[in-house]
Amino acid sequence: MSNPHKKNFRFRYIIDKEFQFKFLAHYSLLFISGVLVTLGFLYWLNQSKFDGGAVFRLRQDAQTVFWKVDNEDAKPGEEKTKFVPRDIYLPDYDHKLNMYTIQRDAVITLSILYLALITVFSIFKSHKMAGPVFSIKRSLTRMANGEPIEKIRIRKGDEFQELVQVLNEVIQKRVQESEKKS
Length: 182
Description:
By secondary structure, this protein is mostly helical. Helices cover 56% and strands 9% of the residues. The radius of gyration is 36 Å and the shape is rod-shaped. The model has no long low-confidence stretch (mean pLDDT 77).
């Protein structure tokens, strides 16, 4: 025999599919757009900064180096390898920019930007939830105190439309019952 006071645990986390998937989609789109912007920015950074020479620019003065090559025209008694001089341009590492510094700064900057965007998005999204919760709480408090209650009104784009509709039906029935008693 089951205990009526035993607490029931829920293992279903998807209760209101439409609301929860819409909420998940909003934050997923925000995250995916952030990843795409980061990847795009890093791609642009690598294309424009590294290839353009802003990070690894070549020195203007050529350095002479000697390359060891096989001497195919060697006569008997001559060395089979010879050293050929060649001018090369070496990277200029005198400046303080490197790939790590640029990408670290980019990731920090983009993280701050994403944090700001998520904060703004969260405020607007939570406002669409907090407004109806406040209206519902106020109406239920009035009902509990025995005060006259009015129909709950929320904006068109707010969340919990279905809940408010059901509560308004309850309020309307309660008002009709109190009018019949009077």
